[in-house]
Amino acid sequence: MNLNSLMKRNVLCLLTALLLLSCQENKPKEIVSDSTIGQINANEVKTPALLEPKGQKREYVILPFSEKPDYMLKGAASTQLTAEDIDEVYRLVQGAVDKYNTEQAHLGHKHSAVDLRRYRLQLIPALNAKGEKAVWVNAFCSNAPTNWEKSLVVVNDGGNCFFQVSVNLLWKKWSDFGANGEA
Fold this sequence. Notes:
seven-stranded mixed β-sheet; 22% strand
């Protein structure tokens, strides 16, 4: 077998493997938004023990709906979160972080891994236009501004020390995960 036909065979095998892997991905049955949607079952979270380690408390605040960015949660209305809702938010955010960390490792950016234990979360709950409970999550490294519990933290750049994600508590899905860039 010559080198050219061997390369063609290897490329064909690689493309077939990629196609098969992409078909195995759990895709949601209903599209909730036009963006990429993440979905995770509570049992699929890789590191549930990291959500609230012994001796450490989760650092989060629920901000009023009026603090939401203009571009988020359009057509939504204010709502409240229960303790169970907050647990689910953390499970979903951990799922989004796990996916982000896996993608960063595949790209060779191991220093870009996010450890949710080191982040503070600002949660803005809402009922979306369909009446589904959703939460916009703004997360940042623990060295946050002193007013983080009262006002939305907005920065330009900052790398993965800052990320945002939306979660839909009815469908138990996350979407729109994005870590900030670096200047």
